[in-house]
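note to self: the first set is below, dont mix up w the second
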Amino acid sequence: RELVKRALSGLPVPRPAVGPLAVHYCAKLAGVSLRDYTLKPVVLADCVIRYHRKFRPDAVWMSADTWVNAQAMGAAVAFPGDDQPLGGTGEPLIKTAADIDRIPVPDPSSQGRWPLMLEAMRRIRKALGDEVFLVGCFDQYPFSLACAVMGIESVMVAVVEDPAMIRRLLERCADYTVAYACALAEAGADMLSGGASSGALLGPKLYREIALPFEQQVIARIKAKTGLPVSLHMCGNATPILADMVNSGADVLEMDQRTDMRDACRVIPRHIAIWGNLDPVAVLAQGTPQDLVRAAKEFIQTMNAAGHQRFVLSSGCTLAMETPDENLHALINAARNYPNLN
């Protein structure tokens, strides 16, 4: 826990910190269905605890899927199968501006799966104590959350045809994002992370005009209320909007494997930490342990060459459920044994 805190603060560390984005992988490791992992806080917590005790990463994640906030707002969700992630189903929650007014004030103690997730967070914190840095995933930043409750196609049309409605929806989404993030902090999180990948689909200009201001607002509100570092996760090649992400106010930027880290280090200032960015499929799931060592060494050397001290070695996105144990061991051991890697 202390190692990751120091790494994110730019303080000297004895070795690189490592914290893969293990979510559904934890369920597979424990041999439980995604349905049980998603709906039973005791099971979710036990899966994360087992994962940590087997691999001993420096950081673990508390997350279930990308529909926690949408469900809390009233969106209909369902499982396609017992071992498939929960997702949206049926008609969108938001069709007209009047629907926005029907969304209740957020209450993390009672709505949707929020109480279940908070219980899981408290159980993980109690079981692991100060051993590990605990990342609480508050699900989605406002624009991505708006796409979940309204439908991405409808949102994209409304961005052009009814921007006032979209801003009203984003305001309500921001309230939900902040409420959940602050509740996770109270339950024991060391860092708060959310995804904003739908915003990247807007293109740089509209991202700056529509999505970014609400990311800035949310981050500022969370930091003011919790004092914890806040992270911004972006799937895909984030290079076109990287400078804008820098201006979000996030303390940490999570980069996936499609973003070239040499380019990223030229844009991201050294006071912002980087979390990433090994390929979770081609390298972690399908590669060999030797591939993992090479990829980890390259990432660490890229950070060092850029003078970027604030980083955590990780998968660029969530681990695939079929990731071999030996590959995950290789990644974590690479951080522990650096620079003595062959």
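second set (the one i keep forgetting abt)
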Amino acid sequence: EWKLALMDEPISGLDSKGADLFINYIKDWKENKRSIIITSHESSYLDSLVTSSYTINNHILSRDNV
């Protein structure tokens, strides 16, 4: 059983069906107390799922209001 996953742009290139399927996997993993770190430019798919969100702008990391 894994506890932490690192994903870089996992939704990039997926159609809406594939993105929805991926979101369902994330919901399941979250219920099973697994942690996932995701980098993404498509945050609209993930906004409702995250417990923390950060933005990098001009080499500065800042926490977003979630």
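remember for set 2: The CA atoms of residues 47 and 66 lie 8 Å apart.
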